[in-house]
Every structure is written in structure tokens, then in C-alpha cells.
Amino acid sequence: MADKDPDHQKPQENSPHGMEPYDLGGNGDLGALSKEQQEKLNKYKIKTRIENEKYLREHPEVECLVSGFLQYVNKHFTDPDLPTDVERKLEARQQKIRQNRFLQKMVLLAPGWKAAHSNLIP
């Protein structure tokens, strides 16, 4: 049964900074979570954010990895030739796959080749 207190229907606190806004619902609809559930979720989110901050401070190598990744993204994903380069690399890879399939068939079809070159085949 829905509580008739309008303050019970909406959380009193704002969502933690950087987190998704609440689903506050509407007339007769509490939304996705009850007030108690939302309060527990807020505490969990804050606790998790604090733990994440502690971890990042204890592991400065993560910042180096993220920085390197962002530099890579900034360099490559702002390149106007990126779609052409990706398409060219994909086509080259597909060509190698076709060549490998052809060579595999040749090895299977050539009598005696496998036995003569067994040191080359794993």
C-alpha cells in the first residue's frame, strides 16, 4: 500500500555528484526505488566512490595507463583518415585469411607434401 505522505514518495537528498538522477515516479508511483532503498543506494554509491578514490591514490600507475589511453584516443580518433585506415587494415587482414585458407587446402591436397614438410607443421 502506498504511503500518502508526499515526502515519503521522493528522496530528500540529491543524488551523489556525478551519479545518475533518481527515478522519482509520479502520482501514486514511488518510482524505481522506495525512499529506504534510495537512501541505501546513496550510501553504497558514496562508499564505492570513496573506495575508488583510495584505490586510485594508492595506484598511480592507473593514472599513467588512463593518460596513455586518452592520448592514443585523442591522436587516432580525431584523425580524419581513420575510417579509410581501418577499412584498409581490415581488408588486408581478410586477404591474409583467404591466403591462409588457400594454403591449408593446398597442403591437404598435395600428396606427400605434408610428410616431406612435417617439421614445418605443428
Question: How large a portion of the residues is in β-strands, by DSSP E?
Answer: under 5%
How many β strands by DSSP? 0
What is the helix content? 55-70%
Number of domains: 2
Task: Kindly report the average pLDDT value.
Answer: 78
Regions with little confidence, pLDDT below 50 for 5+ residues: 8-12
Shape: elongated
Radius of gyration: 29 Å
The structure class reads mainly alpha
Report, as a whole number of angstroms, the end-to-end distance: 70 Å
Largest sheet: none
Topology pattern, helix = H, strand = E: HHHHH
Q: Number of helical segments?
A: 5
Task: Please provide a written account of the structure.
There is one protein chain. It contains five helices and no strands. The chain has helices at 6-9, 35-58, 60-76, 82-109, 113-116. The protein starts with 5 loop residues before the first helix and ends in a 6-residue tail after the last helix. It has 122 residues and is mostly helical. Residues 1-36 are annotated as: Disordered. Residues 1-11 have a biased composition (Basic and acidic residues). This is RIAD1-like protein.
Brief overview:
The chain is built from five helices and no strands. With 122 residues, the protein is mainly α. The longest helix is centred in the last third of the chain and has 28 residues, at 82-109.
